[in-house]
Amino acid sequence: MKITVDFEECLKDSPRFRATIEEVEGDVCELESKLDKLVKLCIGMIDAGKAYNAANKQFVNGIRELAQQSTRDEVIESSLTKFAESLQEMINYHTILFDQAQRSIKTQLQTFVKDDLRKFKEAKKQFDKVSEEKEAALIKNAQAPRNKQHEVEEATNILTATRKCFRHIVLDYVLQINVLQSKRRSEILKSMLSFMYAHLTFFHQGYDLFSELQPLMKQLGGQLDQLVVDAAKEKRDMEQKHSTIQQKAALQDFSNDDTKLEYNVDADNGIAMEGYLFKRASNAFKTWNRRWFSIQNNQLVYQKKFKDNPTVVVEDLRLCTVKHCEDIERRFCFEVVSPTKSCMMQADSEKLRQAWIKAVQNSIATAFRDKGDDGEKLDRKSSTSTGSLDSGGELKERSLKGESALQKVLAIPGNACCCDCGQPDPRWASINLGITLCIQCSGIHRSLGVHFSKVRSLTLDTWEPELLKLMCELGNGVINQIYEARREELGARKPQPGDPRHEVEAYIKAKYVDRRFVRQPSDEELRNKVVSLSKQEKRLSSSSEHLPPRPPPPTPKLRPGSNASGQTAVASGLEARRDSLFCPDELDSLFSYFDTSSKLRSIKSADSGIQNSADGSREMLATTPSNNSLADADAAESPPMPMPATLPPPSPCKEVVFYEPKEYSPGLQLYWASCARSLPDMAEALAHGAEVNWVNTEDDKRTPLIMAVQGGSLVTCEFLLQNSANVNQQDAQGRGPLHHATMLGHTGQVCLFLKRGANQNAADIDEKTPLTIAVEAANADIVTLLRLAKMNEEMREAEGPYSQSGDETYQDIFQDFTHMASNDPDKLNRYQQYDPQRP
Prior knowledge:
Blueprint: H1 7-12, H2 15-69, H3 74-143, H4 149-223, H5 225-254, E1 271-280, E2 288-296, E3 299-303, E4 311-314, E5 321-325, E6 333-337, E7 342-346, H6 350-369, H7 374-381, E8 400-401, H8 403-410, E9 428-430, E10 435-437, H9 439-448, E11 455-457, E12 462-463, H10 465-473, H11 476-483, H12 487-490, H13 501-513, H14 523-541, H15 564-572, H16 584-594, H17 598-606, H18 616-623, H19 627-637, H20 666-675, H21 679-687, H22 704-711, H23 714-722, H24 737-744, H25 747-755, H26 770-776, H27 780-799, H28 808-823
Antiparallel strand pairs: 1-2, 1-7, 2-3, 3-4, 5-6, 6-7, 8-12, 9-10, 9-11
Helix pairs in contact: 2-3, 3-4, 9-13, 10-23, 11-21, 14-20, 18-27, 20-21, 20-22, 22-23, 22-24, 24-25, 24-26, 25-27, 25-28, 26-27
């Protein structure tokens, strides 16, 4: 045995010994690292082998299943069965090989590392420790003073004991090193030799196994010659096809054309069309990403690169429409619009854009031809459509939805069948026309665009009460009398259920877009209609004249510390009124809820003319005589007379007076019909070509929407807004619909206009905003609505441009006002006669 470290040299503790020790220690450390790595690799190999065996077993089971399926072909069945048996035997040999590897490499080498190398490390620790102690004893002995005999003796004794201990431990350490160097040779060779013998056995067994299988394999090889000939023929065919496609690609490059896309509804894979498009994201930054789009199974889907799971853009193409987009900066863009969302896409060229638009249109037509019984499923599957007035995301408990709205709308005569084709039991509606539609006609209406028809589901969408009343005041019978007045005269055939989609689409376009069947009135008929509507408006306005006059407002009692002249000035313009919807304490809690930003607090403190109050409504409630004091004063003089719940008072700034106009037009008919609250006449005027924002230059430039405010009908305003009326258009006095609704005290209309984006900061020629007018009129409800809307808008601006619009509490309050204005208007009937001359 070769001695690695000399025993005599270790007693000298010479530099040669220390260098040898350092070299051995480094070698042992490296040996341990290599052995650990080898053991880990062995463990990985064994785990991979076990996984391979498991997968191989599944593969063999697949071969057996294929053999069982091929029972009619004896050659295939017997061959596959034999192959499966041989492969299973090889799996068993692999299992034995991995077991031997685990015993010879993993277990044996791990034992060597854990036992022998651990003893070496422990001996090294003791050697290092005693070496340090010896070094310290030598230093102490050398430093002992000559004149202190007891210190000399103590140092000498310690040095003698330390040297004896050092010799004992260093000899043991050197012995451990020599034994370790010798044992590592035997352990490593033993484990590796055992592993190699395991491989030898494995390959011998495999050779013997496949030697027995060789005759069968040679026999089958002879039968494959024909397959080689067939493969060569297939190769020539594929090369020819490759050459043909390459020539087509060259021609496309020469003509600067893109890859040709064709719509194929009968494609084998179910994909009618596919290709790359750029898609605009729905996030706040509107980024564009390239995606692989396809039309399959009446759906528009796309995939990202390197991902297989498709994302559905449109669940059913029957519910969508497609159109060009020329109003954005990018070229070749088009948009697919569904009831729930829209998707903006960009093609690489104009030809590709046209191809995709045509493919989507063809898919819609194909889906309707093949729809079968899917129509009802589609009604139940669709989600909320666009155009809803409710800006809140959640369903309000008093909003009508599902069967409730369906029953109310279908109860109107003529609404039980589709307005255009007569299909029974419709589930869709056009909210700006006021008609019911079947699934096919609703898809066609949606393709016309929202400027012609706004489609909504009767079963799934939320229906606001004013919108439901609009549907109930019109209906299929009223609209068909207008839009089909000349159909029989012209000999046009009305579609029937089951007619081809293109015929129904052509009829609907002729009916609503071209208005081919509308009977245009003569000048005399139009004049009589306008005069009749003006007289009807006068009858409505004078219906409250028989009521006894209300008593003058009493002089209120002054609060301590209040300004008497100011109180008198405010009270002089007031009539007796009922309690506000919200008491002062409730208003305090509401405004404290919304007052969450320093910006709003600064607005409070900066309000001119307001003493320590958050807004005009609370100051108004504080400075206006309380309802109890008013009631006491009224009781002292005479009992108050209630205001009529049906009609509002005439306009305080200008009375509605009919005069002979210079020219009669459909716009003038819409103007007076809006004031007379006649929705059928309004729909007729629009069908005759009336402009919804028509301006009466002879009457202070008022619009039909302003006249609808004068008429006091919430449904009339809703009808005009659904037909794209401008909610901010002003008259000659600079007053918009919100100004007029505020002056008349029409709380429901104020709520509606605010929901539809009315600008409450607009000032008239007297520099008065709606809020200023509401505060002067002491209308607590309107002040509350205006203040809450303003605060909500300021909070959204403070949160940033991408914040979600609409606070839940803010939406709940507006929802309460909406339902009250439609279902219980008496509660809001506390308007005041606004006097613009009042200081």
